[in-house]
Specification:
Number of strands: 17
Distance between the termini: 53 Å
Structural class: alpha/beta
Helix content: 25-40%
Radius of gyration: 21 Å
CATH superfamily of the largest domain: HUPs
Strand content: 15-25%
CATH topology of the largest domain: Rossmann fold
CATH architecture of the largest domain: 3-Layer(aba) Sandwich
Bound molecules: flavin-adenine dinucleotide
Strand order of the largest sheet: 7-11-6-1-4-5-12
Largest sheet: 7 strands, parallel
């Protein structure tokens, strides 16, 4: 396996790294082999991100204070860093911003661009990236033939390494001039949507209810079990469309991609568009009254039964264990 230099752009929001930020250091180490992993952090106020990046596997961290996070500016800075540090692969989180930056960077650098990668095989000459197509129905294996490869990584697809406090790495601040010609648009105003904050991506336990819960009143059982377990509530798209919970709870292809330690699904059929979003969970428990339901194909434990009868038993038993 060849040694490669890998640059990882760790996106941050309000001084906090996005979840996929540190997760990307895991495939970065694998792709690099004996090469160097460099993290790029564009938020100089977030020193802790740089230190954490070292403990999660970066050999060096470059911080650049960009002032704002417009895709054009970040692209321009990453292009300059790539010209200077000559990585073979640049990893970017598959976030809304990352999906905007990666193709711009690839186009400007003449690089191959691979999007939404969920697995990497580094056993051959060149890394082979797995990307889901058609809502995860097809998994495509892609390798890029260009000297520089720009790759976006799906959140939750890789586990963050255990933090190694003894990890050492250089942290250096750089100043990168962004030419005016690189900035074709100007952000005149930003409006933050005031919506319910639901952190499904970082949840260790998720209790999800599907349309099989029957009604908003019975869906409340999902919240009750979540409360007992200290879990976060997830939902399928039909539940959102029925207005039982807000869109912030949606798991799946057009919702959030999650990877908790425990995922519990009640009255969820297991449609591809839902499973795509939770297949990375460590342990899946499913309750469905239809023994043929596809959710059982991905479940570690399946219970054929009425979720509205099983849930109160779960809640009582969990309360007893916790008491
Ligand atoms: C482009 C696109 C994107 C999509 N994105 C998403 C997405 O992000 N997330 C998502 O979830 N869906 C998404 N969908 C919708 C998806 O295709 C499915 O329709 C949806 O996941 C089904 O939700 P469900 O399992 O809750 O409902 P249903 O398919 O109606 O299934 C309900 C299940 O509950 C079971 N059931 C019924 N009563 C009970 C009971 N009392 N006890 C136990 N089980 C019971 C039934 O046997 C059935 O299996 C998307 C679809 C498209 C086309």
């Amino acid at each position: 396996m060849a040694d490669r230099n890998v640059m990882v752009y760790i996106e941050s929001v309000k001084g906090e790294p996005v979840k996929v930020g540190y997760e990307m250091l895991t495939p970065a180490r694998e792709i690099a082999g004996g090469g160097k992993v460099t993290a790029a952090v564009m938020d100089s106020s977030a020193d802790s991100i740089a230190n954490d990046a070292v403990s999660f596997g970066a050999d060096e961290v470059i911080t650049v204070d960009t002032g704002d996070f417009s895709a054009e500016k970040i692209t321009s800075v990453l292009k300059s860093l790539a010209d200077e540090h000559r990585p073979d692969v640049v990893l970017i989180g598959s976030t809304p911003a990352g999906r905007e930056i990666a193709p711009r960077l690839a186009a400007r650098a003449g690089a191959g661009c691979v999007s939404d990668v969920s697995a990497v095989d580094c056993s051959g000459e060149s890394p082979v990236y797995t990307t889901p197509l058609y809502g995860g129905t097809i998994l495509n294996n892609v390798s890029a033939v260009t000297p520089l490869q720009v790759v976006t990584i799906r959140s939750g697809a890789f586990k963050k390494a255990d933090a190694d406090a003894s990890g050492s790495g250089d942290i250096k601040a750089e100043t990168v001039e962004v030419p005016d010609s690189d900035l074709k648009t100007k952000i005149t105003d930003s409006v933050v949507e005031i919506s319910e904050q639901v952190n499904l991506e970082d949840a260790e336990i998720i209790v999800t209810g599907g349309k099989g819960m029957g009604s908003e009143e019975d869906f409340a059982l999902i919240q009750q079990l979540a409360d007992v377990l200290g879990a976060t509530v997830g939902a399928t798209r039909p539940v959102i469309e029925a207005g039982w919970v807000s869109r912030a709870h949606q798991v799946g292809q057009s919702g959030k991609i999650v990877a908790p330690k425990l995922y519990m699904a009640f009255g969820v059929s297991g449609a591809t568009q839902h499973v795509t979003g939770m297949i990375g969970s460590d342990y899946i428990v499913a309750v469905n009254k239809d023994e043929e339901a596809p959710i059982f194909d991905v479940a570690d434990v399946g219970i054929v039964g009425d979720a509205k009868k099983v849930l109160p038993i779960f809640i009582e038993e969990c309360k007893k264990i916790k008491a």
